[in-house]
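2024-03-11 09:14:02 INFO receiving multi-entity request
2024-03-11 09:14:02 INFO entity count = two
2024-03-11 09:14:03 INFO echoing inputs for audit
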Amino acid sequence: MGEREEVKLLGTWYSPVVARAKIALRLKSVDYDYFEEDLFGSKSELLLKSNPVHKKVPVLIHNNKPILESLNIVEYIDETWNASGPSILPSHPHDRSQARFWSAFVDDKWFPTLIATTITKSENAKAKGMEEVGEGLLLLEDAFISISKGERFFGGEVIGFMDICLGSFLVILKAREKLKGENILDKSKTPSLCKWANQFLADHTVKNVVPEIDRVVKFMREFEAETQTRA
Amino acid sequence: MGEREEVKLLGTWYSPVVARAKIALRLKSVDYDYFEEDLFGSKSELLLKSNPVHKKVPVLIHNNKPILESLNIVEYIDETWNASGPSILPSHPHDRSQARFWSAFVDDKWFPTLIATTITKSENAKAKGMEEVGEGLLLLEDAFISISKGERFFGGEVIGFMDICLGSFLVILKAREKLKGENILDKSKTPSLCKWANQFLADHTVKNVVPEIDRVVKFMREFEAETQTRA
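2024-03-11 09:21:47 INFO inference complete, emitting structure
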């Protein structure tokens, strides 16, 4: 009998980037112990020790060694449990480079722009930001059509790297649409991406792994009320 | 006789991130055609067509397919010419995740902070930024000691992913030290990193691939004069 591997995940239930690690672990059928962090209260000793540079979640701890940054964790899971479950990154170098390119677009440009529209108090800046978010979705629609080649996901018939990257933000997107009556993912503009989003959220590796939209709506409402009281 | 592979690199001579692609191609002994872009004048049709989203260099074009983003290009080169030359990323998943983590730290945090100190007109902001740059170098000194385990590079006895990532900025760092009389890489504070920097710049895969420091000093001086005239 082999020794049981230590796999720990430090996260918060509402974090989309923590959901990335959870989905990847689920795709690879890896058992793990989950530790909920309180980022508004005090962070755990384990988090501070494991991620002294950024002190952020997610942190994956595998046999005592921490792995940091969500997409880095997803790649680590893919490489470590490579014999188990589907490959998360595509196998051909060019397809891999496309998955990494679009993931960087989502993380460095598209999502930060969306978040900035929530934070800004200027109506002008918000309108300009939402226009950029919409333009980004058009680019992602084209990328999806080109990469998926008629299959269900960016990764083909199963969820892959870029699905996890963009898909992890869908719950926040849907929660925000519900909270503010917005229509960010618009069926008339990005039909393929809308279909992909529904398929992603309904997939058995995602459905019970990401938080419920209504719970996130409630969390966002409380968070907004809290920050407005403080401001 | 096989068909000659098409490998094109679009870049600018002074760009540190373009140097990353050049060093990786050199490590793998890949022949390529280089195209100098004029980012201050008009960008080439090939650049606009290959990178319509960001319109930035470097772009690697391999058999008609563009690969974008410098570290993504380095990974692509490592994976595509995997049988040629040393492996650029380490082979163990945990070592790979460390290389990716510290590279993200350099690209997303450390280098942008250094650049911000050049741009800001506030002496306070500049001093605070330079303090953060120094703290970042202390973290990188510790990371180097832990990762290199007494060998010459982050990658061991040969240059690897993290060497290319951080090392590509050394010419700009040295040029700035020369131009402003600063001492950013301080032997008394980060002795291992200073030794690493000299070894990196003297390595045969780097020496004639990165631009000469004096040429970059001249370029920076002209660029500063130009922007001050316009301001």
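2024-03-11 09:21:48 INFO post-check: Chain B has a mean pLDDT of 95.
2024-03-11 09:21:48 INFO post-check: Residues 66 and 98 of chain B are 27 Å apart (CA to CA).
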